[in-house]
Amino acid sequence: MREILSVLESDARATPDRIAALTGIAEDEVRAAIAAWEAEGVIRRYKTVIDRDRLGEDRVTAFVDVTVAPERGRGFDDTAERIARFREIRAVHLVSGAQDLRVEVEGASMKEVADFVAQKLSGVDRVTATSTHFLLRRYKDDGQLLTDPEPDQRLSVMP
Amino acid sequence: MAPPRKPLSRVVEACPPSGIRKFFDLAQTMKGVITLGVGEPDFPTPWGVRESAIHALTRGATTYTGNSGLLELRELICADLAARHGITYRPADECLVTSGVSEGLDLALRALVNPGDEVIVPEPSYVAYQPCVAFAGGVAVSVAMDPAEGYRLDADRIAAAVTPRTKAVLFGSPSNPTGAAQSAEDLTALAALAEREDFWLVSDEIYDRLTYTGTHTSTAAVPGAWDRTVLLNGFSKSYAMTGWRVGYVCAPEPLAALMHRIHQYTMLCAPHVSQVAAIEALRSAEPDVTEMVADYDRRRRLFVKGLDELGLTCPEPGGAFYAFPSIRASGLSSQDFAEQLLNEQKVAVVPGNVFGPSGEGHVRCSYATALPLLEQALERMGTFLSSRM
Which residue numbers delimit the Aminotransferase class I/classII large domain (chain B) (predicted)? Predict the structure, then answer.
């Protein structure tokens, strides 16, 4: 059954009949499994990995390390959830190390991102410090290499 | 100055050039070809393995190694064989690192065969088997296996070809070109025959990791077979390392010693840097292998089903990355089929007759090709067949 997920993970558009052909699992079972995973929230959504550099889109991304004063009884959860709700925030992770949260912010320009960090993010209760790293170039995203694929150097017929 | 007048090697001259050559030349000149004709993985070598080789080069792995190969590599190979198949070889004197299975095959035959000895080759077979028997001074005796039985190694058919001169049976499992993976039962029957008639089993297991419908049975693991088995294997297919030319041969010590003798005077050693890469492959590339095998398996299912829908039936290939469908319904010979398919639809497959007369009426299709290309190839084959079937 995990086979179904690994097919979907590499191609979110794979239809149940195609998945059935690839895995040898009956199409009905594929449909049922996917429906169950969707209901349980195992499958969160179907996504497309876009190479924004190639698209020529001028979006700006920054990774921001956030230091948080944890709350008695709640730890980092409330603060993390409050931060996660901002539209500008793409990802929020609690990490080990010197800072507490590592978040990904996206905006139309450096100024927009800087303003968001300065005015909104640092202003969230219990956020005591931020450190912003602007993304310069993506080489691999979501397990997908964004560099040019290696050319196939095999000869076309070989016994 | 007169040109040389004495004849060149009669043995080599008598060996027909690879039937694939003409077809290969044609395919090379064409653009936009989807190739199902390649006998190697479409994955590049896992990056961790390549990185370790680069590092090794910077550290000076540019020398010869000992003839047998790096001891660490032989230890890892023997541990891997023990873990996966429960077979025991001593790294010191029963395991030899070679420049691919190709060299191992040549060593095995040269160490086994006396002039005129017969080596039975079940067909369809890999293209190098019969020539290598001839180069070693032996006589290849081909025996056709039955497609209706999934090309299983039928000990009865082989028994019928055994003579007092039979020195060995040479076969690959899983098979190039049929994809047939041999069962423990059939290998056991063959081993019993080998013992009764006193011949060797030269077992090419280069595709052992690429087995989908069950687990691979190593010939050496079959009861009674170890003493008369030469086990050939390597890194090319499992780890996508074809160009590194690194493989190994394992055999009982007296035979291993003879192979070592030939190897030390002819090859000297397998490439040092490739041996380092092979060490890294055994140490760390298991997840890569698992991923590649899962991928081949998906393609196999989709492709075999697609062939079936086109009316090109084939026994389910249990291993390797080949399907060997019958094309008889098209009314064409395998050469004509392959040439016309290439010319009209730009899909390259290998005509079955290059794998022996019993391969006629079939073509070998490799599904070591990206899924979208496989699907496109099936479509083109459908167009090709629509006017012929």
Answer: 32-380
